[in-house]
Amino acid sequence: MNCSRFALSELAQIKYGKNQSKVENPNGKYPIYGTGGLMSYTDEFLYDKPSVLIGRKGTIGKVRYMETPFWTVDTLFYTVVNDEIINPKYLYYKLSQIDLNEYNEGTTIPSLRTDTLNRIELDIQDRDTQERIVKIISPIENKIASNNRTNDNLYSIGETLFKEKIDSNSYAEKRKLRSFFPVVTGKKDANAATEDGKYPFFTCSRQISRINDYTFDSSAILLAGNGDFNVKFYRGKFDAYQRTYVLIPEDKLLLGYLYWAISIKLSDITSNFRGSVIRFITKGNIEDYEVAYLPDPRILNQFQSYLEMIEANNLENERLTKLRDTLLPELLNGKIDISNIDI
To answer: In the chain, which stretches have pLDDT less than 50?
Structure first.
């Protein structure tokens, strides 16, 4: 493999983000990012060229790539990439293969220093190979992003349908959630998660972990019972953390309706949380909550079709993510000869 070794300082200048309090505008045009992801918006941008974002404090293990104007807060570095040497997205791919937690210099809060980052050495392929790798991987990532946007739109359509046709309908019944399903609690400890597990493992995080065995094999709604309350849907074999509630409707045709009903009413369902340090809800909070229900097959089928489209996109994204994560290291290590591929 034809490579040259560079220190990160030769490939990019690491820049500090800035406090966003004076520029923040929820209706602004440009995103504001912190180490945890999107925080808000602003009418100003800090940088407007392709850049790799690196956590300075807090969540430091993963990098992010931006091609459009953005603002980063002071816990998140951005980079000015030397594009005479390296394709910015190729640099992102290279850094994404490094566990930056290994460079942590914080004691209580994970932290990275510019001096430490600048000394990281990377084997960089020639510019033609860089461009080829980006052209191979980018369409996969673009398709994943497109599916996510489609799912966001489908969710918004389902939300509108629920609010207009059911929640505001005077003929709708009021039924407790316990009438649709038993509330089952996951049994696994969070430590059961493994990086290369065969089955999805649902915890209270929005991210999905993996596990080597499963308890459930069904279509289910997953409700995180503590911390960051959130709702997910999954069909197939999976397992769940002790504080994640598994909701499997007795009538599978109600899955779509119930997914939107619970998602839209989540803040109400979780409003009676317990705990001062870590918030949590009980089975009773879920079972006793009343939702509007209209047994109209046409509307229920609409919910179901939207959910099935979302599920299909999620399954495709799982396959595409696995393909990308398998292919990218092989390309970056030169184990796949792409010199003669017509791209």
So the answer is: none
